[in-house]
């Protein structure tokens, strides 16, 4: 599969680059960003941290705002950030123009309901197609971890719990951990997957953690001043589910922090170092 470079910037001794490619999974041109640390070469393939962003975001938010390049360069880790949904003139969107569904809000599921089911296969894109593209075109290994924020935190946790053989570790900031029981998740899952809640649970981290047969290292940071904490995020539900089955997770409540990238940039070094321990 061919890819097209659309931007390239020197950063922290490495390179931040954006590419587009024609996706067979979501049937449109997709854009992703990659940070390659200075250690990456054909004779030294580096591990990859995949980052999944939240509602309204693209491949750009994390790369520009999180401040992760310096520590990733120090530790020799590549970072890959895909877009959050298919995009283009033919891509169906929320009919009311809302921010929490449709374009920019793919929720990292494989849609089964029309008209979403032709394009909105972000789960397969993140798990299968994108890593194949990355490993084919860049000096990286197949050793990988996954992380994300908000909707992307939901994506990172649910994908890791369903594919513990593919990832060494998982982390999240302010994740939607129980989408079947919160408004953001109920809207997205009912539209993408229909009304069968058994299908919804296949993407719900609180349900998935109870079925997990492998305990991946898991780190979660949540701000206690997050405006979405009590209605949309509910980290206590994941903590309770994990305790029921003895799944060890580290959930840190951070005093005074909200849902923004100020929060992410304050603790991103902890997360990259956490993953580096497991990517060796």
TrEMBL record:
<feature type="active site" description="Charge relay system">
    <location>
        <position position="150"/>
    </location>
</feature>
<dbReference type="InterPro" id="IPR029058">
    <property type="entry name" value="AB_hydrolase_fold"/>
</dbReference>
<dbReference type="GO" id="GO:0005829">
    <property type="term" value="C:cytosol"/>
</dbReference>
<feature type="active site" description="Charge relay system">
    <location>
        <position position="259"/>
    </location>
</feature>
<dbReference type="GO" id="GO:0046294">
    <property type="term" value="P:formaldehyde catabolic process"/>
</dbReference>
<keyword id="KW-0378">Hydrolase</keyword>
<dbReference type="InterPro" id="IPR014186">
    <property type="entry name" value="S-formylglutathione_hydrol"/>
</dbReference>
<dbReference type="Pfam" id="PF00756">
    <property type="entry name" value="Esterase"/>
</dbReference>
<comment type="similarity">
    <text>Belongs to the esterase D family.</text>
</comment>
<protein>
    <recommendedName>
        <fullName>S-formylglutathione hydrolase</fullName>
        <ecNumber>3.1.2.12</ecNumber>
    </recommendedName>
</protein>
<dbReference type="GO" id="GO:0018738">
    <property type="term" value="F:S-formylglutathione hydrolase activity"/>
</dbReference>
<dbReference type="GO" id="GO:0052689">
    <property type="term" value="F:carboxylic ester hydrolase activity"/>
</dbReference>
<dbReference type="InterPro" id="IPR000801">
    <property type="entry name" value="Esterase-like"/>
</dbReference>
<feature type="active site" description="Charge relay system">
    <location>
        <position position="226"/>
    </location>
</feature>
<comment type="function">
    <text>Serine hydrolase involved in the detoxification of formaldehyde.</text>
</comment>
<keyword id="KW-0719">Serine esterase</keyword>
